[in-house]
């Protein structure tokens, strides 16, 4: 994908991966609409981009990006300020609920933000991209969507669903000019890692430790650099932590052995004998 002159929407862009990807897109010559629940932070991101570039290259929209009305506002803002959307980065993510005691509200929140926000955005944009013969959808899932997330069932299941939707989208519309990539990092130094998993011995602390002890914790800017390279190559699976591919291959080659290994890993995180 050529990012010079491209118009992008990036959700979950008030900080972390979203903010870094938005800035990287602008650095490549694109323009961006950034979105986040936190109005103050996302406006600050847009203002910083515009100040640093000396031009209006970013606009901000605050709201829940799993809401059809907010998605429509994002698309309308992009068209008004910069032109038709070429790239949609469905990056917003959330942790909601940990174990089997997670109630239906927690499940619905996780599914809304981590999966259905992607579905609703694609529903709004893909038909128009097919007519134009081009467009690009980038889904931020997680290594948890390829492997699993020890300590958080809602996160693990919703991220698996995000990967599945991205795969389906690429298979279904790839021959119609629609590009799709799926970003699956492990640990990244963001609020989602540092504060998103909270809980007791059987919950948040184990979930966070499972991520930080599995490999290097990257900075958002490191992830953004990998994303830009992958978009240029139109590569489907984006793995800022290359070792995830090896883990995924081992999982597929012997599922029972992989599950046994994950159980041992979980026991070690709990400090069990």
UniProtKB/TrEMBL annotation:
Molecular-function annotations in GO:
oxidoreductase activity
Superkingdom of the source species: Bacteria
Q: Name residues in a coiled coil.
A: none
UniProt-listed Pfam families: adh_short
Q: Which InterPro entries does the protein's record reference?
A: NAD(P)-bd_dom_sf, Sc_DH/Rdtase_CS, SDR_fam
Q: Which Gene3D superfamilies match?
A: NAD(P)-binding Rossmann-like Domain
Keyword Oxidoreductase in record: yes
Which family is it part of?
Answer: Belongs to the short-chain dehydrogenases/reductases (SDR) family.
Write down what this protein is called: SDR family NAD(P)-dependent oxidoreductase
């Amino acid at each position: 994908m050529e990012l010079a002159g491209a118009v992008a929407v990036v959700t979950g862009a008030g900080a972390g991966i979203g903010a870094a990807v938005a800035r990287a897109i602008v650095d490549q010559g694109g323009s961006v609409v950034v979105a986040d629940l936190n109005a103050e932070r996302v406006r600050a991101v847009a203002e910083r981009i515009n100040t640093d570039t000396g031009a209006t290259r970013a606009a901000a929209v605050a709201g829940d990006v799993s809401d059809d009305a907010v998605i429509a506002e994002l698309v309308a803002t992009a068209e008004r300020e910069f032109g038709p959307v070429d790239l949609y980065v469905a990056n917003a993510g959330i942790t909601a609920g940990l174990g089997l005691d997670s109630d239906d509200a927690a499940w619905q929140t996780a599914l809304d933000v981590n999966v259905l926000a992607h579905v609703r955005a694609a529903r709004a944009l893909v038909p128009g991209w097919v007519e134009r013969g081009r467009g690009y959808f980038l889904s931020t899932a997680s290594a948890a969507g390829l492997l699993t997330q020890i300590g958080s069932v809602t996160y693990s299941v919703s991220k698996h669903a995000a990967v599945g939707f991205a795969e389906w989208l690429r298979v279904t519309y790839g021959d119609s000019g629609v590009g799709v990539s799926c970003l699956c990092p492990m640990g990244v130094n963001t609020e989602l890692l540092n504060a998103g998993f909270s809980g007791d011995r059987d919950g948040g602390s184990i979930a966070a430790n499972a991520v930080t002890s599995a490999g290097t914790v990257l900075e958002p800017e490191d992830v953004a650099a990998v994303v830009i390279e992958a978009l240029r190559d139109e590569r489907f699976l984006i793995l800022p932590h290359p070792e995830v591919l090896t883990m995924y291959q081992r999982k597929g080659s012997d599922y029972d052995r992989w599950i046994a290994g994950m159980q041992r890993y979980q026991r070690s995180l709990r400090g069990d004998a």
